[in-house]
Design goal:
Length: 540
C-alpha cells in the first residue's frame, strides 16, 4: 500500500524537488543522527562524573525531548526539580514548562495544567504559559477555562491567529458552530497568505463535520506552500474516512484551475492509496496529455495503475519511459518485471527474471525484489532456488511477515517439511500489530487455528482502519483458503463495493501466498465482479 510518506515524497518529486533533494535530506538526517549521538555521549559521560550538575541535566532533558525519548526526559526533569536551588526561579520556570510539554505528549492534561499554573506563579508576566494552558484546558474538556486563557493571549497579542483558532475550538466544544466559524474566518481574512490559518480552519470545519470545505482549506494551504507537507498529510489522512469529500474538493479545485498539475497528481495519489486505480489512471493520463509534468514518477504511477488494470503493454510502455529518466529505483524494475511476465499469453518467466536481475543490481537485499524473484521461481517449480532466495530474504529481514509466510508455504506444500513450515508460521504469531499486513491470520490457518484466523480478520475489518476495501480482499483470500466459499464471496463483494480496484489481483494473480485463486471457482464469482465493474473503470 502506498503510505502517506511515500505520497508526500512522490508529490515533492513530481513538483520538481527531484531525487537529489531526497538524497540530500537522507544525508543530512544521517549527519544529524551522528551529531545527536555524539552530544548524548558527552552529556552521559559528564553526568556520570557530575550527577548533581542540574544545568547539564536540563540540557540533556531537552535533547531527550527533541529525540522523542519522553520517559527519559521526564526522569531527568523530575531529578532536576529536586536539585535546583530555591532562588533559581528562571531555571525552575523553564523546567516546569518542559515537564508540562512532556505531560502533554503523554496525554496527562491534569498534570500538565498543574505544572503550567506553577510556572505561571513563578513568572506571571510571561506570555509563554497562557496558550499551552488554554490548550491543556481545552484538551481536558474544560472550554470555559480554555476560553479565559485564549483571551489572555489575545489581550497581549490581538492578532494571534492560533488563539483565534483556539476560541473557534472552544465554540465547537460548546456546539456554537456559527461563532466557531466566525473566529476561524477572522483568522483567514487577516492572514490570507498564511497556510496555517487554512489548516486551522480545516480542523474546525472537520470537527463540525463539514468535510468538503475542510478539504478545500487544506488544498488552499497546499497551494500556498511553506507548510512542510502538513496540509497534504492532513488531506491524505482525511481521505481515509472522508474519501468522497476530499475527491469532491479536489474536483472543485481542478474545475477552477484545470491546468494545475498538482491537483491532478494529489488526487491520483490519494486514489492509488485507496486502490482506485482506474480513477488514478484517468488523472495521470490528464497530466501526460495536457503536458503538465514530464517526470518519471508520473509514468511509474501510470504503469502501476495499468498493471493493476491488466493493461500490460501500456504499463510496459510507461515504465520504460520512467526507467529512461531514472535508472536507480528498484520499484520501477519490479513493475516492468510484472508487465513482462504477464503480457501476451503470460508465463514470460525468463523475461521477468532478467528485469528482476537489474533490480537486484541496484539493491540485492531489497525485500520486494527478493520476494518477486522467489515467486517467479516458485511458478517455474524451481523450489530449491526459491528457498535459497527466501532464506536470504528472511536473513536480511527477519521481521518480514510476507517472507516468512511464503517460505512456510513453500516448506509445507512443495518441500513437504511440516516442521520447518510450522517454525515460520509460529514466528509470525509473535508479531502482534493491528493490520492485515502482519498476515497472522494466514499463519493461524496454516497451524490449524481457523477460528482464531476468522476472528483476526473480523476484528481488523470492524476497526475500519484500512481504506479502499483492502481488508476485505485479504479476508476473502483467507476465508477461501479455509474453505468458506460463501463468506469469501461476501468479503469479495464488500471489497469491490468499497472500491478495491485491482483487476489483476481479483482475476489473475495466483502467486502464493495471498490470492483469490479459490474464490474464482465460486459459481457467482463472475457475476459479483461484473456487478462491480465501476471499481476498475477510468473515471473522474
Amino acid at each position: 500500500m502506498m503510505k502517506t510518506k511515500y505520497i508526500m515524497l512522490a508529490l515533492a518529486l513530481a513538483l520538481g524537488s527531484l531525487a537529489a533533494m531526497a538524497q540530500t535530506q537522507d544525508d543530512d538526517q544521517r549527519v544529524r543522527d551522528k551529531i545527536t549521538e555524539a552530544v548524548m555521549r558527552v552529556y552521559n559521560k559528564h553526568l556520570a562524573e557530575n550527577p548533581g550538575d542540574y544545568n547539564t541535566m536540563f540540557a540533556r532533558a531537552n535533547q531527550y525531548y527533541y529525540n522523542g525519548q519522553i520517559d527519559e526526559a521526564l526522569a531527568d526533569v523530575n531529578t532536576i526539580l529536586t536539585l535546583i536551588p530555591a532562588q533559581d526561579n528562571d531555571l525552575r520556570f523553564e523546567t516546569m514548562l518542559l515537564r508540562a510539554r512532556l505531560y502533554d505528549i503523554k496525554g496527562d492534561y491534569a498534570q500538565e495544567i498543574i505544572d503550567l499554573k506553577a510556572a505561571n506563579g513563578l513568572n506571571p508576566s510571561s506570555p509563554a504559559v497562557n496558550e499551552p494552558l488554554a490548550k491543556a484546558y481545552l484538551n481536558s474538556g474544560d472550554p470555559d477555562n480554555a476560553e479565559t486563557y485564549f483571551k489572555a493571549v489575545l489581550r497581549n497579542q490581538p492578532l494571534d491567529y492560533n488563539a483565534m483558532y483556539g476560541l473557534a475550538r472552544v465554540e465547537v466544544a460548546r456546539g456554537n458552530y456559527e461563532q466557531a466559524a466566525a473566529h476561524a474566518d477572522k483568522a483567514v481574512n487577516l492572514y490570507s497568505a498564511e497556510p496555517q490559518v487554512y489548516m486551522n480552519r480545516a480542523d474546525v470545519l472537520t470537527r463540525m463535520e463539514q468535510y468538503v470545505p475542510a478539504a478545500q482549506d487544506l488544498i488552499s494551504a497546499m497551494a500556498i506552500g511553506d507548510d512542510n507537507g502538513e496540509a497534504l498529510s492532513a488531506l491524505v489522512t482525511m481521505s481515509d474516512k472522508n474519501y468522497d469529500a476530499v475527491m469532491s474538493a479536489l474536483a472543485n479545485s481542478i474545475d477552477k484551475a484545470p491546468r494545475v498539475g498538482m491537483f491532478y497528481y494529489v488526487r491520483s495519489s490519494i486514489a492509488m492509496k485507496h486502490f482506485h486505480y482506474g480513477q488514478a489512471l484517468k488523472d495521470l493520463k490528464s497530466i501526460i496529455d495536457y503536458d503538465l509534468y514530464d517526470y518519471h514518477t508520473i509514468y511509474y504511477n501510470a504503469a502501476r495503475c495499468q498493471l493493476e488494470l491488466m493493461q500490460y503493454d501500456d504499463a510496459l510502455a510507461n515504465i520504460n519511459k520512467a526507467i529512461a529518466m531514472e535508472q536507480s529505483t528498484p520499484d520501477y524494475y519490479l513493475v516492468k518485471a510484472a508487465a513482462e511476465r504477464y503480457r501476451g499469453r503470460g508465463n514470460n518467466f525468463e523475461n521477468a527474471l532478467l528485469v528482476l536481475g537489474d533490480a537486484a543490481k541496484l539493491d540485492g537485499q531489497y525485500l520486494p525484489t527478493m520476494l518477486a524473484r522467489a515467486r517467479v521461481l516458485i511458478a517455474q517449480k524451481k523450489d530449491r532456488d526459491a528457498l535459497a532466495q527466501l532464506d536470504a530474504a528472511v536473513a536480511a529481514h527477519p521481521d518480514a511477515a510476507e517472507a516468512r509466510l511464503l517460505r512456510g508455504w513453500l516448506y509445507k506444500y512443495r518441500l513437504k517439511d511440516a516442521t520447518m513450515a510450522a517454525a515460520d508460521f509460529q514466528e509470525m504469531l509473535l508479531r502482534n500489530d493491528d493490520t492485515m499486513h502482519n498476515l497472522r491470520g494466514f499463519a493461524m490457518h496454516e497451524l490449524g487455528r481457523d477460528e482464531d484466523a476468522r476472528a483476526w480478520a473480523k476484528a481488523i475489518i470492524d476497526k475500519g482502519v484500512m481504506p479502499g476495501g483492502e481488508c476485505y480482499y485479504y479476508a476473502s483470500a483467507l476465508l477461501s483458503d479455509m474453505g468458506d466459499e460463501a463468506q469469501a464471496i461476501d468479503y469479495l463483494r464488500s471489497a469491490l463495493a468499497n472500491g478495491y480496484g485491482s483487476l489483476f489481483e481479483v482475476k489473475v494473480n495466483e502467486d502464493p501466498y495471498v490470492n483469490l485463486k479459490l474464490v474464482r471457482r465460486a459459481a457467482d464469482f463472475n457475476s459479483v465482479v461484473e456487478q462491480n465493474q465501476q471499481a476498475f473503470q477510468e473515471r473522474r
